[in-house]
Write a structure and sequence with these properties.
271 residues; alpha/beta; four-stranded antiparallel β-sheet; 24% strand; globular; binds adenosine-5'-triphosphate
Length: 271
């Protein structure tokens, strides 16, 4: 689904809410970088997050609490309809929690918070929904990755920065052997997922979120994506919702079960 008026694009039909943006206000990203201060590690912290869709009495998520350390891999599993995707949409800023907070906290090596927490802003989150290739809009790889980027003349510094980020993202996901002129729809299943990841990685997110990253892929492409995620978790915090527990188990640092009714509990994988 695309909105040509805004240049924004949905990766999945969302819950009724503000539109998600692939680019968000990312044309501004040089101004929205966080100040990097010496610290030992940072964590995504989700505190007492609850969600009721506006105008309803439905309580989809109930006081969710969890944290995920940087450069680690978290997996949320649970029955269909329990609220996993709803939670991911809150983390990505597509919908707003009814209450609670989502932020990044930096810590010293002794585990003490070393500065005040920063809200997790949508510009710092990359999200790849289920079957992202269904929402490709361009007829070549370059336009697909740069969809929504500023097109006006001038600002060469920004363009150079974007070009460098593009190159890095393409290399990161192992797409450098693919021509940027190629039609994204003609790529194999695994390469389409790589492309969907590259689109998000251009912005070097603090948190990379994936909803069912292995769904609909053949065994070879699944193994490929698992390998790529293993590589990415060395650089980023990765949070995944999946039913494919066995294939992802070797990557998992922390896991949680979402129970019907929207309660999240830390639990090891039921393998
Ligand atoms: N805006 C809304 N209004 C009412 N109900 C909603 C709304 N959004 C989601 N729901 C309901 O909330 C529940 C949780 O949906 P969600 O998509 O988050 O589940 P899920 O755990 O991701 O499921 P699956 O594993 O099948 O993807 C579902 O029963 C869904 O129908």
């Amino acid at each position: 689904m695309a909105s040509s008026a805004t240049g924004l694009r949905m990766l999945k039909p969302p819950l009724p809410a503000a539109p998600a943006s692939r680019f968000n206000s990312r044309s501004k990203f040089p101004k929205t970088r966080f100040l990097r201060v010496a610290c030992d590690y940072s964590c995504l912290e989700v505190r007492d997050v609850s969600y009721q869709p506006p105008g309803t009495q439905l309580s989809l998520l109930k006081s969710i609490n969890f944290s995920l350390r940087e450069k680690s891999f978290g997996l949320i599993f649970g029955q269909s309809g329990s609220g996993k995707t709803t939670l991911l949409q809150l983390l990505a800023g597509i919908t707003k929690p009814t209450s609670g907070s989502i932020y990044i906290q930096k810590y010293d090596s002794d585990g003490k918070p070393n500065q005040s927490s920063l809200p997790l802003v949508p510009e710092r989150v990359g999200i790849v929904f289920q079957f992202p290739e269904r929402y490709f809009v361009a007829d070549n790889v370059l336009d697909e990755v740069t969809f929504g980027w500023p097109r006006q003349k001038g600002d060469y510094q920004l363009k150079e920065d974007l070009a460098l980020r593009l190159q890095r993202a393409i290399n990161w996901v192992g797409l450098s052997g693919i021509s940027l002129d190629k039609d994204p729809h003609s790529l194999s299943g695994g390469y389409k997922r790589r492309l969907a990841l590259a689109i998000q990685l251009v912005h070097i997110p603090d948190l990379l979120i994936l909803d069912e990253p292995l769904a609909g892929l053949d065994w070879k492409a699944r193994a490929d994506v698992v390998k790529l995620l293993k590589h990415l978790k060395k650089e980023l915090s990765v949070l995944v919702v999946s039913h494919d527990l066995r294939e992802l188990a070797s990557l998992v640092d922390r896991s949680w079960r979402m129970e019907i009714g929207g309660n999240l509990k830390e639990e090891s994988l039921p393998l």
